[in-house]
User: Fold this.
Amino acid sequence: MKKSKIIIDKYFITGEVDKRIFGSFIEHLGRAVYQGIYQPDGQFADEQGFRKDTLELVKELQVPIVRYPGGNFVSGYHWEDGVGPKELRPKRVDLAWQVVETNEFGLNEFVDWSKKAHTEVMMAVNLGTRGIDEARDVLEYCNFKGGTRLSDLRKQHGYEQPHDIKLWCLGNEMDGPWQIGHKTADEYGRLANETGKVMKWLDPSIELVASGSSNLTMPTFATWEATVLDHCYETVDYLSLHQYYNNSADDSADFLASSVGMNDFIKQVLSVCDYVKAKKRSKKQINLSFDEWNVWYHSNEQDKKLEKWVQAPHQLEDVYNMEDALLVGSMLITMLRHADRVKIACLAQLVNVIAPIMTSDTGAWRQTIFYPYLHASIYGRGTVLNTIVQSDVYDSKTYGDAPYLDSVVIMNEETKEVTIFAVNKDLEEDMEVSADFRQFADYTIKEHIVLTHDNLKAENTESNPFEVKPESNGTSKMDNGQLTMVLKKKSWNVIRLSGK
Ligand code: AHR
Assistant:
């Protein structure tokens, strides 16, 4: 059995967890909205047509915030199409995903759905085909109290009180040539600044996210961030990062090492933010919104065969396996380890489209990745301790040295709980992890949750929804403040300690 160590001190703190780091994303794409969260003619519909079974699973996850309405979709979207009487809403061609959008579901429905899901809204504005006017209009419609054309239109639509949406994305992936209205960094940076300026004049209480690179392999990566921030540093609050990983080479060890790449990506983007801060002699700090992250590749081949211009096709419906859950766990650990600067993150996406939750006409079920996301969201709130991990490393093809152990420790003084998240990436051997926990000597082990499976390719499907599921059967012991945890090979672990 391999041996590793975790070193912490309760006074050596990385930062407070902003609960929005456990956010997610719903785009008008595939069956995310239609059939995923909204299916008025289905057996699970409530009085507004929202799927009750999906709502239950979203509430189980305690998702604190959901980004909407896209994604690539937002860059061609007219929000006005999705408000007011449904019978008057136009059907439109959605060029981003080459489908037909009926607009039966729009921003008011999303706000209502979010309330029922106990979550907040993170709204994106269209900076692809539109700009300052559209952004201030949608903000006026949503947040202005009344007595103006658009705030009164909201009231006329049945929403007397403002939606009071606090977090807004300035466009989406504007560096990508696939984006409707793709821009250069200078074009986007200026537009983001001017749009953001006007939006904050209208509602100074909002926070803004500028679009960073679509992924770290973009040829413009880093100069994009530097140029964009040069224009809008003082106007925006966060810079976005997006990254999806794949195992198309079927090399599990390399795939699981992707969190090393994610860690580097975060560090590099932070360096650029702080470079611009230094250049501007600014007192302000830009933090990060990792507002699209996940594994995405299983559906690539089947999506090439999709018929165009239909409504809500089975698009981006990745079926996740055990190894995907391990990487999702490692990615959550990686972001938590940067909790001082990563304030928002959105698992992309939430339902049916590269998602932890899947639905059919006859039910909803949890994919493998549901579980690490669930555990992080419900047990990962508090203070991140600076967690030093001493572990053997392996040589991964893409990322070089990759530690077998990924881990982070969260302390919650309110609930008197300490939680350790850990992934053992060793495919062959269990691991014994020891840690000096004398500062928590009166704490006892409440639970050691393990998610593992003999077969890394095991999946949860509608007919076999619990093939991969967590068990509270881990082996950990606390002996005079010495914590010893046994992590099964290829496993995600949650060790929960509680004090008196
Ligand atoms: O999440 C799916 C798509 O991935 C989003 O629409 C886009 O922003 C990204 O490229």
Observations:
- The CA atoms of residues 120 and 235 lie 22 Å apart.
- The chain has a mean pLDDT of 98.
- DSSP finds eleven helices and 25 strands in the chain.
- The first strand starts at residue 2 and ends at 7.
